[in-house]
Write a structure and sequence with these properties.
This protein has about 425 residues and is of the alpha/beta class. It has helices at about 10-15, 25-40, 40-50, 65-75, 75-95, 135-145, 165-175, 185-195, 210-220, 245-255, 275-285, 290-300, 310-320, 330-335, 350-355, 395-410, 415-425, and strands at about 1-5, 105, 110-115, 120-125, 150-155, 180, 205, 225, 235-240, 265-270, 300-305, 325, 345, 385-390. Helix 5 (about 75-95) runs parallel beside helix 6 and helix 16 packs antiparallel against helix 17 (about 415-425).
Length: about 425
Amino acid sequence: MEIIKYPGREEWCSLVKRSTMDVTTLFDTVRTVLDDVRERGDEAVRMYEEKFDKVRLDALQVSEEEIREAENLISEELRQAIRVAKANIERFHASQRFEGKKIETAPGVTCWQKAVAIEKVGLYVPGGTAPLFSTVLMLAVPARIAGCREIVLCTPPDKEGKVHPAILFAAEEAGVSKIFKAGGIQAIAAMAYGTESIPKVHKIFGPGNQYVTAAKQLVSLKEVAIDMPAGPSEVEVIADTTANPEFIAADFLSQAEHGADSQAILLTSSDAIIEPVVKAIETQLERLPRKEITEKALAHSRIIVLRDTREIIDFTNLYAPEHLIIQTADYASIAERIENAGSVFLGPYTPESAGDYASGTNHTLPTNGYAKAYSGVNLDSFIKKITFQEISSEGIRSLGDTIRVMAENERLEAHRNAVTVRLNAL
């Protein structure tokens, strides 16, 4: 890890840059697969599954029998853990329900909003080195609470053509409508365009590698909406001398083990905690089964010493971390001044892994500085709001001249006339 002490503000912009790949360089390759799936449907999806996931599939949809079997293929301990996490996620996201109010903006002019669920949503859950059944819960639970009528899930199968039973169990618990064995670009294409088996959806959610990210960006140009731009996962820890070095090290490593391109940053105004934290990281790293991946992530992770709390807050708001852990004596005070972050974890006993799994908050969050403009996935992500207005005869009389003057000055005579004919009728 790089240790940087007291960088000047003019250096901060280079320090907050992530080492992310420019996915636009993949667009030509990705577009070829997207177009092929759009043209040939299931046949193309099966071909790319054989090419990329090394499996020949007779059917893309997971059968009811496979879903029923899944419950018995995982331990009772894991089943209970999934149910507890689901209940907490459900409780938190249910509290976000929108209640529209009718507002009289002027005499006789009433306006309001109505929240309506997106009818069909697609969830992508990556394969790779670990089954991300937690992501199933994070996406499917709020989709169901929102009232989405069709919740489609795509996830790559293993070389035997099976989906990990924990993913199937979580999907069943969370209320997923249909599950398909499809990964990568071909899965995104199938949900964006629709195939003989996989329904076309209106919005796609979920993380993935650079190819999935590029595919989501391309299909979002005209076919479907997507949750947010995405990049490698990241955490920032703010700590002072009251913080436990073992806790900081554990948080660093839990982030770094996500993938070789993940990043962890420690901000502090105290030199004294650096050596204990580095030693704790080295000790804990030796015990990790994903040590090799974690070491690669640590290679572009940093410890940065700044002059005071104000600099730490300013740097944090510039970095806009996906995850922010604050382990300081005055963590509540610092948290109040945070403007850009995906999800914030306060105090010594709140690890990032709590939000990743079971506290109830969502772990699908903006990365790569997008927290400056994007929220993490929440109930609103699965909802669109429709505005309504009703104007009485009294209302059109009171507001009519205002509308006519504005329309006339924009030289839109038909707009002006739409009011005039009504006023004349009165």
